[in-house]
Amino acid sequence: MDVVGVAMDKVRRILVYVCKERAAPRRAQFVQSVTGHFTDSGEDEVEVSCTLEKNQFILYKGDRGRGVPLKRPAFCPIKHLSATDAAAIPLDIQQRGVDVGVAILLQTANQRVLLTRRAKELRIFPNVWVPPGGHVELDETLLGAGLRELHEETGLKLEPEQVSPTVLGLWESVFPPMLSRGLPQRHHVVVYMLLHSSLTHLQLQPSLRPSPAEVSACLWAESRLVRAIVSAVDGEDASVQLDDLPSSISVSQVSADGALTESSMPLVVFTSRAPAGGPDVERVSTGTKFALELWLRSLDVPDL
């Protein structure tokens, strides 16, 4: 193998493959909506099955009722991409394919979930609140990738035998998140995985050692706050369910050296919606809202 071939081999990534009926899986194209591949009527949510085999993340229509939801936002840039827009995307980006990510919803024994704010220096979704997560590396399992990212980003180390993972759903994520913000640069399918800890958030808090390069704040969100977060649907104007929540929320800020400092943040940050234009704002990501709604359903929380 020549030098160029070696370099290309080193940057190989786990990519999404799609399969219809009994056809062989084929690599999803960057400018192709993965959700749209499985529906003929333009819906933004569909039930699929998934498997990770030989470094290929394969999505297919399985037996009804045995899959997981795959969803895209109504404003998904790939969904609304014109032929002219698609042609304007640089060739190196078009050839990327669709990447695979894993995000971990870590549920504590007292039913809170860990959210982290992405560092403002990150190129993709800076200053946005998400669960810990990242890309799946070659020869990793989905759980292995999730546990590695959880440890790298937060310092929390869980062993595979300590957890019983559940895939809540899949989210088709594009950055920038709207065409009004520019042509797509990245295209992912994010696997949201639920893990249960036998410890409370107060017991886990001393073990938090966030990486300042990736995380600028942490929050253990309880169900009332989560309900408010998911009620602020991006792209809609419906009222937010505040449930008598306080006007400020306690979070742990991460300093440049990784130290944690308790501080308060306005509730409105967590109930902000993705703006249609102009600069983005600090908010909970649209995909995270999707996953948190699925989490609430798993708790059998009423009024959803």
UniProtKB/TrEMBL annotation:
The reaction(s) this protein catalyses: a 5'-end (N(7)-methyl 5'-triphosphoguanosine)-ribonucleoside in mRNA + H2O = N(7)-methyl-GDP + a 5'-end phospho-ribonucleoside in mRNA + 2 H(+)
A single GO molecular function term of this UniProt record: metal ion binding
Listed Pfam families: NUDIX
GO cellular component, one term: peroxisome
Enzyme class: hydrolase
Residue ranges of every copy of the Nudix hydrolase domain listed in the record: 95-243
Enzyme Commission no: 3.6.1.62
Cofactor(s) this protein cannot do without: Mn(2+); Mg(2+)
Keyword Lipoprotein attached: no
SUPFAM superfamilies the UniProt entry points to: Nudix
Keywords attached to this entry: Hydrolase, Magnesium, Manganese, Metal-binding
InterPro entries: NAD-cap_RNA_hydrolase_NudC, NUDIX_hydrolase-like_dom_sf, NUDIX_hydrolase_dom, Nudt17_dom
One GO BP: NADP+ catabolic process
Membership in a protein family: Belongs to the Nudix hydrolase family.
Described purpose of this protein according to its UniProt entry: Acts as a decapping enzyme capable of hydrolyzing monomethylated capped RNAs (in vitro). Hydrolyzes monomethylated capped RNA after alpha and beta phosphates to form N(7)-methyl-GDP. Shows low activity towards unmethylated capped RNA.
Identification of the protein by name: m7GpppN-mRNA hydrolase NUDT17
Organism: Oreochromis aureus
Species lineage: Eukaryota, Metazoa, Chordata, Craniata, Vertebrata
